From TrEMBL:
Superkingdom assignment: Bacteria
Keywords: ATP-binding, Cell inner membrane, Cell membrane, Membrane, Nucleotide-binding, Translocase, Transport
Phylogenetic lineage: Bacteria, Bacillati, Actinomycetota, Actinomycetes, Kitasatosporales
Mode of membrane association: Peripheral membrane protein
MF annotations from Gene Ontology: ATP binding
The keyword Disulfide bond belongs to this UniProt entry's keyword annotation: no
InterPro entries hit by this protein: AAA+_ATPase, ABC_Ni/Peptide_Import, ABC_transporter-like_ATP-bd, ABC_transporter-like_CS, Oligopep_ABC_C, P-loop_NTPase
Name of protein: ABC transporter ATP-binding protein
Length: 326
């Protein structure tokens, strides 16, 4: 049994302009000690899926129309809110992009870290402070003991993101969902924070879901990847295989848009066109208006997730035409 299994999840938003179908039948699995990267352009439904898993979706306007979210053997969608709240924080935690707006500006980081232990474990103020220092050391904040009384704005962006990671780790959760955890940081700091996250994940044997729109950032740390487009998963594969030979034209397009160190002078070819409006997703294969390989059948028949190999799948009718696959 997997740590987390999302099955055929459908999420929609009821807006004034109509029903936005943000997540349209997403399934994925994460095991303990495993890292799943979820990749896709803006608006593809990565965060909404994660919010549904965490139980922090805006309902309304959001609505979970169908699906199951099975965590440690229980369907979270069938649990009462009080149960879910217990799971949140202690068994699963989330790290967001923007540490500055997630941390309270008027409380010291030591207080905010310590609060986890006071509230959840009844620790005394002194104990909580000691645990906060330990956590700060764990995420390698220099001079943790001297800095435990500092406020969030006194830390650099990278250090603040480490504090967010410390906060998520505090209660030793079994699953961490990191939603674009390094997007706001500059490139060298990005790599350090990602490295730290991967190391802690191995140490604690946690499941990790890494949401990103930048494959370059996660390629070294993820085990497997799910690529999302217009609320669906269009390709899943072990990260190295996907990198070597994508089995979906959309993935190919994403890969072609990252500069690669091993291919000097490589042309940056972003995918043409825009992601579709979720109020009006193109019929059949949603990618067809932008796909260089599209044919008439792509506008009439929705491609299922075809099995490419034991651990790979592609939602393209013509995946066999992709070079070097499987
Ligand atoms: N609170 C909301 N109200 C209405 N629609 C929403 C809401 N949250 C999300 N959506 C819709 O769901 C779509 C998918 O959003 P989501 O945040 O999951 O995208 P994403 O893949 O995480 O993109 P990004 O890379 O920009 O973070 C959005 O384009 C939006 O139309
Ligand atoms: S099904 Fe057709 S439109 Fe969709 S990705 Fe494959 S070739 Fe392109
Ligand atoms: Mg998002």
């Amino acid at each position: 049994m997997s740590l987390l299994e999302v099955r055929d999840l459908h999420v929609e938003f009821h807006t004034r302009d109509g029903v936005a179908k943000a997540v349209n039948g997403v399934s994925y699995e994460v095991d303990s000690g495993e890292t799943l990267a979820v990749l896709g352009e803006s608006g593809s439904g990565k965060s909404v899926t994660a919010q549904a898993v965490m139980g922090i979706l805006d309902i309304p306007p959001g609505r979970i129309a169908a699906g199951e979210i099975v965590f440690q053997g229980r369907d979270l969608l069938k649990l009462p809110e009080a149960e879910r709240r217990k799971i949140r924080g202690s068994k699963m935690a989330m790290i967001f992009q923007d540490a500055l707006s997630s941390l309270n500006p008027v409380l010291t980081v030591g207080y905010q870290l310590g609060e986890m232990f006071r509230v959840h474990q009844g620790a005394s103020r002194k104990e909580a402070r000691e645990r906060a220092v330990e956590l700060m050391e764990r995420v390698r904040i220099p001079a943790a003991r001297e800095r435990v009384g500092d406020y969030p704005h006194q830390f650099s962006g990278g250090m603040r993101q480490r504090i967010m990671i410390a906060m998520a780790l505090a209660l030793e959760p079994d699953l961490i969902i990191a939603d674009e955890p390094t997007t706001a940081l500059d490139v060298t700091v990005q790599a350090q924070v990602m490295e730290l996250l991967a190391e802690l994940q191995r140490e604690f044997n946690m499941g990790l879901i890494l949401i990103t729109h930048d494959l370059g950032v996660v390629a070294d740390v993820a085990d497997k990847i799910a690529v999302m487009y217009a609320g669906r998963i269009v390709e899943t594969a072990p990260v190295k295989e996907l990198y070597r030979a994508p089995a979906h034209p959309y993935t190919r397009g994403l890969l072609d848009s990252i500069p690669r160190l091993d291919q000097k002078g490589h042309q940056l070819s972003a995918i043409k066109g825009m992601p579709p409006s979720l109020l009006e997703i193109p019929p059949a294969c949603a990618f067809n208006p932008r796909c260089p390989m599209a044919r008439p059948v792509c506008r009439t028949d929705e491609p299922p997730l075809y099995e490419v190999s034991e651990d790979r799948a592609s939602a393209c009718h013509f995946w066999k035409e992709m070079p070097d696959v499987p």
